[in-house]
Design a protein that fits this description.
The complex is a heterotetramer, with two copies of chain A (about 280 residues) and two copies of chain B (about 300 residues). Chain A has five helices and 16 strands. With about 280 residues, chain A is α/β, with parallel strands linked by helices. In chain A, strand 9, helix 3 and strand 10 form a beta-alpha-beta unit. With about 300 residues, chain B is of the alpha/beta class. Chain B has an eight-stranded parallel barrel, surrounded by five helices. In chain B, a hairpin with a 2-residue loop joins strand 5 and strand 6. Chain B is globular and about 50 Å long. Classes of the chains: A alpha/beta (about 280), B alpha/beta (about 300). Chains in contact: A-B, A-D, B-C, C-D. Chains B and C meet through strand 11, strand 13, helix 6 and helix 7 of B and strand 11, strand 13, helix 6 and helix 7 of C. Bound molecules: flavin-adenine dinucleotide (FAD) (2 copies), flavin mononucleotide (FMN) (2 copies) and FE2/S2 (inorganic) cluster (2 copies). One flavin mononucleotide sits at the interface of chains C and D.
Chain lengths: ~280, ~300, ~300, ~280
């Protein structure tokens, strides 16, 4: 008999906030970042327990469409004396992201979070560095994790792939962290305009073949993550991926975000994920 | 303190107010405890429960459409036993009445489930899902055939003395005929509607948006369909009705009640905003005060069609 | 010049492209001449025509809902004779094929109407409205009962050799059963869907939003329902299908075609923007070019469900 | 046998324009005016044939709701060397007007018009002045007509009624025109905060009883217009009303805007109206 996977304790400590937009930055189209401010309530910092890889559900309430909130990784987080600033990094695709990109400072948005289970160290610490592999906007899930690794004194290379050069938006932020950790930024574009001409998994595979990495952490298009998982299993390197599924609610109420696992069961992307071990998921 | 009486009697079911959560949109209730003032709800309807746990359908399971969403969760659930042992005790701490939504493949599944909860104190009522479009066998056949529905309800009626709600499908030529069958089988209350069968295709990949190809449409897009069915069923069947379908504001709750509903379930709107039911109750109270209506019960079926 | 072939053959009906206007949303066609490039349309479907002029229902006749609208025009029309003498000659100057949408109270009304247009040159096809929810008697009963529908279609079939389209109702348990009845009666083509029966109430006045209380829901809100019915009917009946219901963009036209439609009618979207069909055709062409599809016909039923 | 009423020639010369917002003015809430600019096309002035009482269909395209355009009287119209400026006067009620009130200069909106049949002189010219009776936002339909009467040298009084003083927004513009014509502005509020305490039809009735007017022109809530029609018939003064109905299209395609007439037939508000003779309509 199968046990329910969505019956565990809910993600701890999330709440639905009214956040205020403090900045909207437009990077080369279609990329943008929005910084949202959540005041402390009763002296309590609202995203204090937020871990890298967790996400929020939000929506620019211009009208009634789209109807459902959209999920966004917590890209960056800053805290001062009495507010928390949450930065999300978006790519305009449809109504949800279009709305967020059109926000202006001063507007309020609902902000539900922090949600889900973030990244955890895949392996017992080894001398080997890690590889973080981002496909385009998937990089949004990896900044906090890159910083966490750096703070723990672990080196990592940051692999950044996309179709064109503009898809490697915000690469300086990742390069800085990678360098500081003792690693480097490796880029690839399918168009050939920046870095390796081809898929980002190609330079990754070369490095894996040389036994360079102790762990892989990835977020991006499903095809990319599946390839990383395949490489991980081929070279016996453990790792994790931050998944994206359609989400109705973000907190376990709709059961819409099923992710098939190797054990034959479904997990909920919003509650059991979005970060899963590479070898748990049916790709 | 409010001077307005929000309490309703839905047949044998007494509720502190007419706002309930809809099955499948509120988890098992406790998921919402951090987000909303659970204690304000008139009632909670659980996710559909079956005898055994069900794993549900593969992804993708949901897709947003204009003013609504398609889902084909496939009745993933923890099973009745896990619900009764692990979840219900937690819900018992909250004032809202707990309605268990039951689903089976065979007629006996329903009566076994109903018998199982008959003696369970904190179960206030039973809602039969005979209209889920998202599973291959079972369920839906009962909801689309008056003869089978009457037999099914009659056998459940024998198994439990709890208030018995039958949830109607909108995907039939005559919801009224199904409502009458449920009544003749012994239902106390009808709830309407379940989701409308729909489908969407990703034109880039040419694949259906849902793994199961078709799914159930819910949300504000279907509210006019739901209001119409509630209106017809309330007038023609003679049982109290719980309105469901795209309700998101106090105004929508009033619309369903004027059409004939004694209470209203909130579903998809909870995803957009989990605090919505609390806001609805607040607005509802204000609205009644400003219109000088002493009890929300005065509004049930009070549409003016002269 | 375009390198993409947009022409389609819908059974015996040949169209320069798959985009038509839907009945009742485009007047008699000429109203649009100042607003849109009429000549670009694949076809125009007229407002429903009856033997005698009809005055229609009292106001209010329309009400906007989420992602759509309710209407109960009640088939106001100028009657078949005025259409043939006063309107059709003007339409004959335009390239789009003219489809006359016919409506009657009795079976004979339909066959008389069909016989009347049989010899009229500029009528390219006949569409039978057997599913209008907005009139008290007639029409709808044919659309909800397979036996009656088959007889009706058979009698119309005898009266005309024009391509015969039967427009299906979504308000039935099995649109496929009705489609099969129409086929067995001799229909060449099915169109789906007519409006979904709905209702709304003004909670301030407590009055229905429409004079007739209930009306027909149309617009993007119902598109998932329409796509589902087109998919089922196209697979199971074996007649070509024209998709209708909430289509507003080239992507929506493609969605209907992937689901199995050979052509698509645009209705409510015309009210939001009368130039929409022109834009759809432009986008459709671009889309096919960019995907390397030589003919739009390749897409009919090309949904990938493996 | 009944003849079709919606089969006549379509409103002449209307088209669907892309207009640019040049100004949004906020009057005491919920009132606002939006000025829209339509460039000449091929040297042709686009609203040259627009008559008082005609209307436009427009929509602030922020998202997908509301779905249908809304009708607005052409409140004012100005022409310079190569553009036409159309001003609409709105009251925030629901999604449609909320959207328009939130417009900002530079945005584009669709503008279909000019539509329908405007006011015409009800009676052969007499020595008697006319009365224009506006209920709140109904005044939007009467400014151009007031100016036309003034230009034709006809005197009129302007009756302006509302619930509160703020509902008599833009009353200066009407007062100026009425005065210039030799008439005056008469106000009434149900709240009693401005002018007559009660309904505007009360001072109107007194004046009618004294035989003061030769014609009545009205726009406002249906109850107000019905009362004006009743007074017109009681005192045998002809007149016209600009009606409002729900409209799907605005140009005769949907047949949604039926207005019942005394002859037992329906007319279309958008094509045969919105201005109808007071004694034609079933009130
Ligand atoms: C846990 C989680 C974290 C996420 N983090 C981020 C983030 O940090 N930044 C970010 O920009 N997005 C993120 N997403 C995706 C985001 O939630 C939205 O799904 C996405 O931005 C599209 O929303 P939309 O409303 O703009 O487009 P929609 O209107 O929903 O979609 C428009 C079209 O694009 C397709 N589409 C939908 N989603 C995607 C997608 N992800 N990639 C490609 N096509 C798609 C749809 O099929 C549809 O045809 C995350 C998703 C999840 C589940
Ligand atoms: C020919 C014509 C000319 C018009 N001219 C103007 C004008 O110059 N300025 C202007 O502001 N409006 C005018 N209107 C009305 C306008 O078209 C809209 O109907 C109105 O502004 C409400 O639209 P909304 O989208 O804001 O509200 P909606 O969302 O459509 O309505 C919200 C609620 O208000 C109710 N409602 C709808 N319309 C009205 C109304 N007119 N009065 C009171 N309640 C209503 C609805 O029943 C609904 O419950 C005109 C209408 C017509 C037919
Ligand atoms: C994600 C989802 C899951 C659902 N699961 C169930 C269910 O298990 N049992 C049931 O009877 N109805 C289920 N429903 C139907 C709802 O209870 C409700 O009837 C329907 O969604 C219409 O209401 P709404 O528009 O307010 O959501 C589900 C609906 C959704 C959206
Ligand atoms: C205002 C209006 C009038 C209509 N009149 C007719 C009609 O006369 N005959 C008919 O067969 N369908 C009629 N319909 C139905 C449409 O042709 C179409 O089937 C339906 O609106 C769904 O398509 P849509 O969502 O694109 O509008 C009417 C629809 C509307 C909105
Ligand atoms: S998104 Fe609703 S359960 Fe995960
Ligand atoms: S609004 Fe008059 S016919 Fe459409």
């Amino acid at each position: 008999m199968e046990t329910a996977t969505h019956q565990g304790p809910p993600t701890a400590g999330f709440a639905d906030h009214r956040a205020v937009v403090v900045a909207v930055d437009h990077h080369p189209w279609p990329y943008f970042t929005v910084t949202l401010e959540v005041p402390f309530a009763n002296g309590e910092q609202k995203f204090a327990n937020c871990t890298p890889g967790q996400f929020v559900m939000t929506l620019a309430e211009f009208g009634l469409e789209p109807y459902l909130r959209r999920a966004f990784s917590v890209f960056d987080i800053r805290t001062d004396a009495n507010t928390t600033q949450i930065e999300i990094f978006g790519k305009v695709i449809g109504l949800g992201t279009e709305g967020l990109a059109r926000l202006e400072p001063g507007k309020e948005v609902p902000l539900l979070g922090p949600l889900g289970q973030g990244f955890t160290r895949s392996a017992s610490p080894t001398v080997k560095p890690s590889a973080l592999i981002a496909g385009g906007i998937g990089s949004a899930a990896l900044l906090l994790w890159a910083r966490a690794l750096l703070e723990q004194g672990e080196a990592f290379d940051f692999y950044y792939g996309g179709y064109a050069a503009c898809d490697l938006a915000l690469s300086e932020r990742f390069e800085e962290l990678a360098r500081a950790s003792g690693g480097e930024l490796i880029c690839a574009t399918e168009s050939g305009h920046r870095g390796h001409h081809g898929y980002i998994t190609e330079p990754l595979e070369q490095a894996l073949a040389q036994g360079r990495y102790g762990a892989l952490y990835t977020c991006g298009p499903e095809g990319l993550m599946a390839k990383v998982a395949a490489l991980g299993s081929q070279y016996q390197v453990p790792g994790q991926a931050a998944l994206e599924t359609e989400m109705g609610c973000g907190y376990g109420a709709c059961l819409g975000c099923a992710v098939a696992h190797q054990d034959g069961r479904f997990r909920l992307c919003c509650k059991d994920g979005p970060v899963f071990a590479l070898d748990e998921v049916v790709w | 303190m409010s001077t307005v009486d929000l309490s309703v009697k839905v047949g044998p079911l007494e509720l502190a107010n007419p706002v309930l959560s809809a099955s499948g949109t509120f988890g098992y209730g406790l998921e919402f405890a951090p987000l909303t003032r659970l204690e304000r709800f008139g009632g909670l309807v659980t996710k559909g429960l079956s005898l055994e746990p069900l794993r549900g359908n593969p992804a993708p399971r949901i897709f947003e459409t204009r003013g609504g969403m398609l889902n084909s969760i496939g009745l993933q659930n923890i099973g009745i036993e896990a619900f009764l042992s692990d979840v219900l005790p937690g819900l018992a701490d909250f004032p809202p009445k707990v309605v268990v939504n039951l689903f089976g493949y065979e007629r006996e599944d329903y009566s076994t489930l109903a018998a199982r909860v008959d003696a369970v104190e904190h179960v206030a009522a039973v809602e039969l899902n005979v209209s889920c479009p998202n599973v291959k066998r079972g369920g839906i056949q009962f909801g689309h055939d008056p003869g089978q529905l009457e037999e099914l309800v009659a056998s459940v009626r024998k198994a439990t003395s709890k208030p018995l709600i039958v949830k109607l499908s909108p995907n039939v030529t005559s919801p009224v005929a199904l409502g009458k069958a449920a009544r003749d089988g012994g239902a106390d209350i009808l709830s309407a509607i379940n989701t409308v069968i729909g489908m969407a295709i990703d034109t880039r990949t040419r694949r259906p948006r849902l793994h199961t190809i078709k799914g159930g449409l819910s949300g504000p897009a279907i509210r006019p369909v739901a209001v119409r069915i509630v209106y017809d069923v309330a007038r023609e069947v003679g049982l109290p009705v719980i309105g469901i379908g795209g309700a998101e504001t106090a105004d929508d709750v009033l619309e369903f009640m004027l059409a004939g509903a004694s209470a209203v379930q909130i579903g998809t709107a909870l995803f957009r905003d989990p605090m919505q039911p609390n806001r609805i109750l607040q607005d509802l109270e204000q609205r009644l005060v400003s219109e000088g209506v002493g009890s929300v019960r005065e509004l049930i079926g009070a549409i003016n069609i002269e």
